Amino acid sequence: MAKIKLMLADHQPIVREGIRALLEKESDIKVSAEAGEGALCFKRLRETKPDVLLMDISMPGIDGINSIRELKKASEKTGIVILTMHQKRSHVREALHAGVMGYLLKTSPYEEVLGAIRAAAEQKYYLSTEINADIIDNYLKRETTEPFASKYDLLTKREHMILRFMAEGYTTNEIAMMLSVSPKTVAKHRTNLMEKLEMKNMATLVRYAIKIGVVDVDSDYGAGS
Asked: Are residues 15 and 94 in the same domain?
């Protein structure tokens, strides 16, 4: 079985060395390239075309999310996993929309780093459990404080959450990743909730969500991007 070709990109040599030392013990992963700044990152990515790029978007020469889009163009089949200190939900959302396959915190345990690398190599999403728990907890807390409309009250708790994610612009795959279910399951919930609410398209659904207070128009998210 072919090993996963991994590229490491972080401006701190000690971080790269530490990750490399751990990954050398894994039989299915091979570190094929490294970079400590933006220009070299792009160069090595184009040269080696790794299966996975594990990177910090705070490196010199990397313009955050905009650079993610350019990196995807440089090597379309490379799964990008972000390893960062930024955990605001708006940062996570923007990164997912830009095309990353995984989002980890630098406080994430090694097992999550491995999980994200292996998932990205198969073009599957992976979200740090800490971030995932924070997002879900945020929505559950809002569940007890928001106004209810009669039709909205017909939805299950899972449908409530999916409605919010949809209205805030998340894709089916992104919602599936955050809820740890399959895209088909999300699609089924989406069909059910739209039938219950008698909504025919996303535009009317978003307006409805804003009207009843499910989505805060002044929040980090907004509807779509």
From this structure: yes
Q: Are 14 and 59 in contact (CB under 8 A)?
A: no
25-42 per-position pLDDT tens digit: 999 999 999 999 999 999
What residue has token string 């779509």? 224
Strands of the chain (E only): list them: 4-9, 29-35, 52-55, 79-84, 102-105, 126-127
Q: How far apart are CA 105 and CA 182, in angstroms?
A: 24
**Pairwise CA distance, residues 11 & 14, whole Å:** 9
HEC assignment per residue over 121-165: HCCCCEECHHHHHHHHHHHHHHHCCCCCCCCHHHCCHHHHHHHHH
> Is 121 part of a structural domain of the chain?
yes
Alpha-carbon gap, residue 118 to 112, rounded angstroms: 10
Q: What is the pLDDT of residues 87-113, one digit of tens each?
A: 777 778 788 888 899 999 988 999 999
Domain that holds residue 55: 4-127
The terminus-to-terminus CA distance of the chain in angstroms comes to 39
Residues 157, 120 share a domain: no
CA angle 215, 89, 18 (to 5 degrees): 165
The number of folded domains in the chain is 2
Residue 25: inside a domain, yes or no? Answer: yes
Which CATH number goes with the domain that contains 13?
Answer: 3.40.50.2300
Mean pLDDT of 61-88: 88
222 domain-assigned: no
